[in-house]
Design brief:
The chain has 379 residues and is of the alpha/beta class. It folds into 2 domains: 2-139 and 311-360, Adenosylhomocysteinase-like (Rossmann fold), CATH 3.40.50; 153-301, NAD(P)-binding Rossmann-like Domain (Rossmann fold), CATH 3.40.50.720. 46% of the residues lie in helices and 17% in strands. It has 16 helices and 15 strands. The strands form 2 sheets. The protein has an 8-stranded mixed β-sheet, with helices on both faces. Helix 3 links the parallel strand 2 and strand 3.
């Protein structure tokens, strides 16, 4: 993770987070541990809880605990244990938070604010209108391109394949939602030889999908044709009982959104004539009254983390460098940020992009003096 390492080296020298209490609700993975180390080297006191019990890596949690970090979460925790972890970190009154879903932010009400990593979390925060600033890390340009499009685009399909061992070539993949993440899932599914159908509610997103060469249709029509369904909407019940009634036998259902609400699990259970059977470690099969079977992957939880390893380190390198620099800005210059959801300062986005290009060995052109004069003249 060379970008984060570069940021950490400077933060370690300057220690801008000295004495700052940082609360984090993130996926407990090795990449997250690297971020925690960077924040601590900058002087922060860090406490962390798990953003998803199925993504937590117990060896990472144990290593952080051994290093003196407060860790509240284990793989396979119950919902009550998951909520208790959030409550414990919130009770420590963190000055700033790093969040993945807004649950810690809303519970802790951090004095200086925080950052939010997900579309779902930002929707919740905008509705709640917090009295402190929250930087929308999820909407930074580097985050959307690297994390959403390339990271989730690849890792969501990785989770589907690992869970089911399906061959993507020749399948019809239905992608529900064509934001940055849906765009990445669709690109990679097509690259693997699948036919792709996109379902959308936003006219411009649907138009963009159609102009990219995908079929676009209502989800009920797609339900009859799909072999694999992947939800990436940030909304709830986008696949429900009406869809289950139309699906082919053997269809695979996967969710790549943050919360396990995009596939209506209650209606899926109600439509089945018997309890689900676990046919593979992460595949639960539901039998319908007419004999059809539908296969739910990873219990409807975020498939790229519950069934695979999440984003590659090269992606989280950029995402967590953005988070670290955003926290530094919140602590060092709190007067810059008004309450509510705010964009990540563009200079942070640009700096992360520059560091990533440097790590890749990529050089850029520079404008000539004449080009600079021309640009200023029109400005």
């Amino acid at each position: 993770m060379p970008v984060l390492a570069s940021v950490a080296a400077r933060l370690s020298d300057e220690r801008p987070l000295a004495g700052t209490r940082v609360g984090a609700c993130l996926h407990l993975t090795a990449e997250t541990a690297v971020l925690v180390a960077a924040l601590r080297s900058a002087g922060a006191e860090v406490s962390i809880c798990s953003a998803n019990p199925l993504s937590a890596q117990d060896d990472v949690a144990a290593a952080l605990l051994a290093d003196g970090v407060g860790v509240h979460g284990r793989r396979g925790d119950s919902f009550d244990q998951y909520e208790a972890g959030i409550a414990t970190v919130a009770a420590e009154s963190p000055d700033v938070v790093l969040d993945d879903g807004a649950e810690l932010t809303l519970a802790a009400k951090p004095r200086l604010g925080g950052t939010e990593e997900t579309t779902t979390g930002l929707l919740r925060l905008r509705r709640m209108a917090p009295e402190f600033p929250v930087l929308a890390a999820n909407e930074a340009r580097t985050e959307r391109a690297l994390n959403d499009r390339h990271g989730t685009g690849q890792s969501a399909l990785d989770g589907v394949v690992r869970a089911s061992n399906v061959l993507l070539a020749g399948q019809t993949v239905v992608v529900l939602g064509y934001g940055w993440t849906g765009m990445g899932v669709a690109e990679r599914a097509r690259g693997a030889g699948a036919a792709v159908i996109v379902c959308e509610i936003e006219p411009l997103a649907a138009l963009e999908a159609r102009m990219a060469g995908y079929e676009v249709m209502p989800s009920l029509a797609a339900a009859e044709r799909g072999d694999i369904f992947i939800t990436v909407t940030g909304s709830r019940a986008v696949i429900n009982g009406e869809h289950f009634a139309r699906m082919k036998s053997g269809a695979l259902l996967a969710n790549a959104g943050h919360f396990d609400v995009e596939i209506d699990l209650g209606e899926l259970a109600a439509a089945a004539v018997e309890p689900p059977v676990t046919v593979r470690p992460l595949v639960d099969q539901y039998r319908m009254a007419d004999g059809r079977v539908l296969n739910l992957l990873a219990r409807g939880r975020v498939v790229n983390l519950a069934a695979a390893e999440g984003h590659p380190a090269a992606v989280m390198d950029v995402s967590f460098a953005l988070q670290a620099l955003s926290l530094e800005a919140l602590v060092s210059s709190p007067e810059r940020f008004a309450p509510g959801v705010q964009p990540v300062p563009p200079e942070i986005d640009t700096e992360v992009g520059r560091l990533k290009l440097a790590a890749l060995g990529v050089e850029l052109d520079r404008p000539t003096a004449e080009q600079e004069r021309y640009r200023r003249a029109w400005g």
